[in-house]
């Protein structure tokens, strides 16, 4: 749920950033927010089903959001580094919006990582086995 909250916060920052850049079409906002909203609803649904002991939800969360979701969060920073930028230059002239977004992204990735570890700990395995029996 922390990862979902961080994602919602990042979405708000992205929309505010679009308006700050100048005129923006409503379609651009609707598409961007709509796609993210679908991801948040699916993630929330899977998290609820996970809490009910549904192993398929655990596997779906691990694959869809743990793997593919994390890759989608990391691809831009990795590409930026591969383009020859240095990590030290990322902090030069950083704006408040960039700092908020980066902090949120770190919290988001940390929450996903913690969830991935928690979902597959021995205690979780016992829980899922008990629910399915």
Low-confidence stretches: none
Determine the fraction of residues in helical runs and give it as a percent range: over 70%
| Total E-strand runs | 0
What sort of overall outline do the alpha carbons produce when their principal axes are compared? globular
- Beta-strand content estimate: under 5%
Task: Write structural notes for this entry.
The chain is mainly α and 133 residues long. The chain has one domain (2-132). The chain is built from five helices and no strands.
List key phrases describing it.
133 residues, mainly alpha, 0% strand, globular
Give the arrangement of secondary structure elements.
Blueprint: H1 2-21, H2 26-51, H3 55-82, H4 96-119, H5 122-132
Helix pairs in contact: 1-2, 1-4, 2-3, 3-4
């Amino acid at each position: 749920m922390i990862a979902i909250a961080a994602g919602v916060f990042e979405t708000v920052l992205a929309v505010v950033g679009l308006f700050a850049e100048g005129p923006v079409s409503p379609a651009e906002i609707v598409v961007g927010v709509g796609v993210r909203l679908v991801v948040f609803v699916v993630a929330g649904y899977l998290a609820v089903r996970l809490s009910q002991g549904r192993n398929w939800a655990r596997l779906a969360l691990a694959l869809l959001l743990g793997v593919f979701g994390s890759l989608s969060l990391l691809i831009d920073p990795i590409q930026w580094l591969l383009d020859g930028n240095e990590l030290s230059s990322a902090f030069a002239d950083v704006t408040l919006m960039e700092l908020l977004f980066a902090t949120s992204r770190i919290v988001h990735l940390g929450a996903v990582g913690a969830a991935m570890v928690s979902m597959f700990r021995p205690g979780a395995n016992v829980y899922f086995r008990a629910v399915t029996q």
